[in-house]
Amino acid sequence: MIQQASLLFILLSSLIFPAAAAENSAITWRQWSPQVFSEAKASGKHIILNVEAVWCHWCHVMDQKTYSDPQVGAAVDKDFIAIKVDHDAHPEIAARYRAWGWPATIFYNSDGVEIVKRAGYIPPDSMTALLNAIVRDPSPENTGSLIAVTTQRSALIPADKANLIAMHKRSYDAEYGSLAIAMKFIDPDSVEYALLEGMNGDESELARANKTLTAALKLEDPEWSGFYQYSTHGDWDHPHFEKIMRSQTRSIRLYAQAYAATKNPAYQAAAERTVGYLNRFLKAPDGGFYTSQDADLIQGQKSAQYFALKDQQRIALGIPRVDTHRYTKENATLISALTRLYSATGDTKIKAQAISIGEWLLANRQRSAGGFNHGSSDSKSRDDAKLFLADNISALAAFIDLYEISADRQWLRYATASADVIREKIASPDVVGLPAASIGAQDPLAPYVDLEENIQATRAINTLFHYSGREIDKVLAEKSMAYISSSEVIASRFTEAGILLADAELNRDPLHLVVVGSKSDVKAQKLFSAALATSYQSYRRIEWWDRSEGALINHDVEYPSLAKAAAFVCNDKRCSTPIYKANEIQEVIALIEGTQK
User: Fold this and answer.
1) Whose C-alpha in 16, 260, 564, 565 is 20 to 30 A from the C-alpha of 174?
2) Contact 110, 44 (CB under 8 A)
């Protein structure tokens, strides 16, 4: 077995293939900036935007075949300004055009108005024809626009809730699991919703979650572990081989959560193997984790035969390129995934790794004025960069999760500071919901509000409210809920169980578990570990009150002075009597939650 240090040497050596676009492109690419849009307006030229992912096979093919074609290059040079964007490096652009997949090709007129959008690979002849057609007639196609939200509310109306539940049920693929679409992957919110409904007694929903999670194990690399992004052809047998951090963190979190609920050892093993993959291939030697591993060994050439090989056979040929950028969002979501795995398993190495990543984020991505930048370690670049909601809400959620597993109050203070930055520097009184990025006077496009990010924001900031007791946090959560609960947004969706999860959480208290006792007390330690390991791994508030540290930050319940360590379980209707035995906590939770229904 090749050790991690050797692998890193290989990854950073000549076996990593350079980007094809830099060598072969017939186009002079510009970076995304307001100045490019100003230049287009002054010159009368249109803009072509290529949104790519460095791990994406068809992006490589488009670089090698389409953007290296002389006719395409001449047509672009004559009437267009060309912008190329790595979607991992630009969260706002990624959010805006996520539905178009990668590569996405977006055309704007000289006034910065979207006129044409295309998804996926475009061959050279088709691209030349498209460029010429846009020059002849730059009228905007019906490409979709920002959703106009007319009513703001902090809860779903009954009709929209019923519609979302119906969407969830009919979107399920009874034969293969997951969503009934051609692309097979783990949709995290629909699986989490099904799992929670199953824990509440709906056996059909539990079966749905289990079928999807079991089927999705086919996306796991049989040699190196880690999860491929998705499979095509409507089944799980045609994987695309890129391994992006988003897929890894989702898999770790959901399999850990499912293991806590079902005790299926296959789920625990899958989560742990995925951590092993990350530590072997994507862990940076000086802290933090890299972003992705390419789908292709040689860019633009499909690699099914390569991924059919055994470990040492692959190593002998080389390793697909790793994107060595270390972004806040990807590292923060990994923290949250690891905290779930630690809660479910009690593996202290996992806890230590989650805390270590948190410390790395604070040291390398935190701005001097608060908040977290996307990718630069340089202090000046960090402070000058645009703030993205995805980074800062993921950091906020990670800090809540670190507080939950450690009872170290510094993490809760970092979470509340992150909420303040989002409120003061990203949220806007003129925008319903939370925009994907801080708004600048020179931004060429109108602010974009991303549904997925606002679902995460509603859930994370609402949880923070219960830990902090600050009414301003509740108000901020309701601001993001105003967008995701709108009838206009819901009507645009195929399915969106995340809205159901956010609505349920915003309108009730979390399950509250508190251990009262000294942190040096072995019995208190066992009670705290048992509280973390309960089957309820989703909407919960877990704290450890050591009286020597003073009152809890949100000390909304007064607990009695007892001769020995005890745990208490509360929901939004009642609290339990003291629990002295760790193995009784789960039983009391079932009793308390059962009383509520």
Assistant:
1) 260
2) yes
Q: Enter the tokens of residue 28.
A: 């002079």
pLDDT tens digits along 508-563: 999 999 999 999 999 999 999 999 999 988 899 999 999 999 999 999 988 998 99
Domains of the chain: residue spans and CATH: 14-136 (3.40.30.10), 511-596 (3.40.30)
CA distance 75 to 135: 10
Give the C-alpha distances (Å, rounded to integers) separating 241 from 222, 295, 308, 487: 12, 5, 11, 37
Chain Cα centroid distance, residue 184: 18
Token pair for 562: 């007892």
User: What does the DSSP assignment read for 502-518?
Assistant: HHHHHTSPPEEEEEES-
Instruction: Answer whether 507's CB lies under 8 Å from 535's CB.
Output: no
pTM flag (> 0.90): yes
Residues in the chain, total: 597
| pLDDT reading at 587 higher than 60 | yes
- Which amino acid does the sequence have at 515? V
Structure tokens at 66: 């389409």
Residue type, 223: E
Beta bridge partners of 117: 106
Rounded to a whole number, what is the distance in angstroms from the first to the last CA of the chain? 53
In the block, tokens 């006129």 appear at 115
Q: Which amino acid is at 571?
A: N
114-119 and 230-231 strand pairing:
unpaired
Question: Which residues lie closer than 8 Å to 411 by C-beta, 6 or more apart?
Answer: 358, 399, 400, 402, 403
Closest CA to 53 of 28, 19, 25, 82: 19
Distance CA(104)–CA(81), nearest Å, equals: 16
Backbone angles phi, psi at 220, to 5 degrees: -80, 130
Q: How far is CA 378 from CA 127, 287, 327, 426, in A?
A: 39, 15, 13, 22
- Run of H or E residues at 128: helix 124-136
Report d(CA 154, CA 189) in Å as an integer. Answer: 19
C-alpha 489 chain-centroid distance: 20
Beta strand 243-244 pairing with 292-293: antiparallel
**What secondary structure, in 3-state letters, does 108-126 show?**
ECCCCCEEEEEECCCCHHH
The CA distance from 94 to 101, in Å, is: 9
Q: How far is CA 445 from the centre of its chain?
A: 24
Binning the chain into helix, strand and coil, the percentages to the nearest 5 are: 50, 10, 35
> Under 8 Å CB-to-CB from 177, ≥6 apart: which residues?
208, 211, 212, 213, 214, 215, 216
Q: Give the containing element (helix H, strand E) for 271.
A: helix 265-277
Q: Taking the CA atoms of the chain, what radius of gyration do you get in angstroms?
A: 25
Contact between 226 and 278 (Cβ < 8 Å) = yes
Whole-number Å distance between alpha carbons of 394 and 421: 13
Q: Which residues contact 13 (CB under 8 A, 6 or more apart)?
A: none
DSSP bridge partners of 566? 516
Mean pLDDT of 98-122: 94
Helix (H) or strand (E) holding 322: strand 322-323
